[in-house]
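User: What would this chain look like folded?
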Amino acid sequence: MTDRGMTPVVAKTLEIGIVLLYVALVTAALYGGVVPSAQADAAHVVGDRTLNAAATSVEDAVPGVAADAVTVRARVALPDTIGGQPYALRAEDRTLVLDSPVTGVGGRAALSLPERVAGVSGEWHSGRDLLVVVTGGDALSVELREVGR
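Assistant: Here's the prediction, encoded as structure tokens.
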């Protein structure tokens, strides 16, 4: 009859064990599939927004009215990382290309520029101060630059 006092202790220990097992299973399920998937989706969205913001910044730097001599230097603000990783944007013809080591992040954005723009060149690396430099007269040159280069 001296074992009757152990019943509540054993019952509470089993309850605590079941709750801990439940929490462990839910945590494993979330971090095994749901959370990484959500992080990848978020990185993809940030990559798309970064590419679109960069393309808009380049397009906005080109003056709408033709002039004899044009010099425009416009700063561009973009995120330092995408998905926790650095990235690069480079110009190819009249297109911006996003290069990222994050799986599923990247892409191309065609630039909508006036015909008088002869070409777009240069490359940006994340985490640096970025500039769009537009120079020329009848034919404009657009360059992606980093401050100090």
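The radius of gyration is 27 Å. If you want, I can go into more detail on any region.
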